[in-house]
Amino acid sequence: MTNKKIDVLIIGAGPAGVAAGIGAKKQGAENVVVLERDWDLGGILQQCIHPGFGLRTFREELTGPEYMHRFIQEAHEAGVEFRTNTMVFQIETQPPLSKGRGTAYGGGVVPVKVWTMNKERGIECLEPGAIVLTMGCRERPLGAIRIPGSRPAGIYTAGTAQRFVNMEGYMPGKKAVILGSGDIGLIMARRMIWEGAEVEGVYEVMSWPGGLRRNIAQCLDDYGIPFHLQTTVTKIHGQDRLEGVTVAKVDEKMKPIEGTERFVECDTLLLAIGLIPENELSRMAGIEIHPVTGGPVVNDLLQTSNPAVFAAGNVVIVYDLVDNVSDEGLIAGTNAAKFAAGKLSPEQKRIPVKGGQNVRLFSPQFVTGESDTIIYMRVTHPIEQACKVTAEPGLYTQKLRYARPGEMNEARIKASMIKANPDLKEIVIDVLPL
Predict the structure, then answer these.
(1) Is 4 in the same domain as 59?
(2) At what angle do helices 64-78 and 15-27 cross, to 10 degrees?
(3) How far apart are CA 168 and CA 162, in angstroms?
(4) Considering 271, 296, 320, which residue would you say is the last residue of a domain?
(5) How many whole angstroms separate alpha carbon 238 and alpha carbon 348?
(6) Number of domains present in the structure of the chain
(7) What is the span of the domain harbouring residue 181?
(8) Is 241:154 a contact under the CB 8 Å cutoff?
(9) Same structural domain for residues 334 and 307?
(10) Residue 332 lies in a domain
């Protein structure tokens, strides 16, 4: 076993993690290490071979691997060290001390130890000046929705099926039903058609889509795939292999309506029923988890309740665009490097952000006013008309053509606005019809 002190340690080499490494190096951190449990870098974007990435960041349309290649190349050129096939199995934190590495915070620093395991390196104990959590998110499994019936072969999350087809070269089946309308499920509906399979339909329990409208148009409408709102799978049929599912319409309380059931023959059920932040390590580090987002509570510096631990990307809140994930990674890496070097002020404001009317999820949850801030949010219900995002009291207003739960909205608040309101107690975000 070896011990090693490093400046910034990043856990997860997806788009947020690689960008965090770049941000830390640009800030001047000398020793920046990114850990990845998979055999290669890139996270989920390794298997996203469809185009549509990088339109905002690079002003051109790229596939997922192409998008990641550009960031990975920049990270290598900056001197970021990557360690693949490395599992983090323990994070230890201690109370603040009077002296030590990092920035004084509440009377001292917060020492952190991270235990890792790798076939070649063995077990290591790393002692970073700061940590950035970028583990991303995971899919909700079938057990999360408790559908009655057997559990035969042929039931996969959409992301698992995507990996099988795009990376492993295996088709999960020949006739599929998609449950849920998350973006990965929509994209896999089209992918299954491309590979010669039949897609009977996409079923969504809500009265609105869960994914981006562009994916509904490009992946369903363009291929004639039926899309059923307010409909769900109520029973699974089959023993060794899936033989079919029962679907039914649901009422306003999302309970199946008697008499609307019908049997759909299929050998494959793909689940696109939501994503949740991957936060076992966050809990292990003892940081505060938000009860609604399922991710760490962060401020606009992307600093968690443990000042030595930062978090960025889908581990905080699930985004719809990878550009936002990369942007957050750069911010988190930059501020983590500042913390490790003792350049991040401990005397920060802590202005709470609250979700107001028609706001379901939002991040960050606190604002320091140290820099300009983007508050990301998702609405509770769609508004299919002109509306506006506001940050009260009087900090931001932006008109929108519409607001939908499947698409992230933003409120951009300038640091100068915070400084001009020294008595500011809280910021309330609303999304309202005009």
Answers:
(1) yes
(2) 20
(3) 9
(4) 271
(5) 58
(6) 3
(7) 163-271
(8) yes
(9) yes
(10) yes
Q: Assess whether 263 and 278 both reside in one domain.
A: no
> Quick one: tokens of 288?
């505060």
Looking up residue 169, the CATH number of its domain turns out to be: 3.50.50.60
Q: Is 253 helix (H, G, I), strand (E, B) or coil?
A: coil
* Strand 309-311 to 122-133 pairing: parallel
Tens digit of pLDDT at every position of the chain (434 positions)? 555 889 999 999 999 999 999 999 999 999 999 999 999 999 999 999 999 899 999 999 999 999 999 999 999 999 999 999 999 999 988 755 444 344 333 334 466 899 999 999 999 999 999 999 999 999 998 888 888 888 899 999 999 999 999 999 999 999 999 999 999 999 999 999 999 999 999 999 999 999 999 999 999 999 999 999 999 999 999 999 999 999 999 999 999 999 999 999 999 999 999 999 999 999 998 899 999 999 999 999 999 999 999 999 999 999 989 999 999 999 999 999 999 999 987 767 889 999 999 999 999 999 998 889 999 999 999 999 999 999 999 999 999 999 999 999 999 999 999 988 888 999 999 999 99
Q: Please check whether residue 148 lies inside any domain of the structure.
A: no
